[in-house]
């Protein structure tokens, strides 16, 4: 039973350890992070009538939505058992969301999202209703969206080879600037105020 469940659960290949593999990962991360930014802001618009939800980074990217699909498309192969695929589509995004939320709260003393009022939540970072949503969204990515993105990447790969390192540097610079900004905001908010004497 366990062996049949684990069938197909392997990293698809080791080309991710090459320059070409790194370029593909940066491309997929960029696309899915941007899609995540669109998804979150659209959700914010439909629920709060506000399109621009506060973002950790400066640019229009949500790294959490970049990491989870990249992990899924490299861990799930066509031979992966259906139940294992569903479990990965549940646990990978949920784990990425929990770790992201916990790290942001620990280092910047702020929650960018809070599920405290939602049933079956854990520390406000994750909750069962949204984890179930991630399953459906992840299955859609693995089954239909990623094959289309991979085909698109196949077309633009020769051009992407010239710019992917700049995209990687952009994310690194955005991360450094965002950490600096939020650390400074955290420092200023913790600074005691001196009453005028």
Automatic annotation (TrEMBL):
Keywords: Membrane, Transmembrane, Transmembrane helix. The chain crosses the membrane at residues 16-35, 56-76, 82-104, 125-147, 159-179. It holds the Pfam family ABC_trans_CmpB. InterPro entries: CmpB_TMEM229. This is ABC transporter permease.
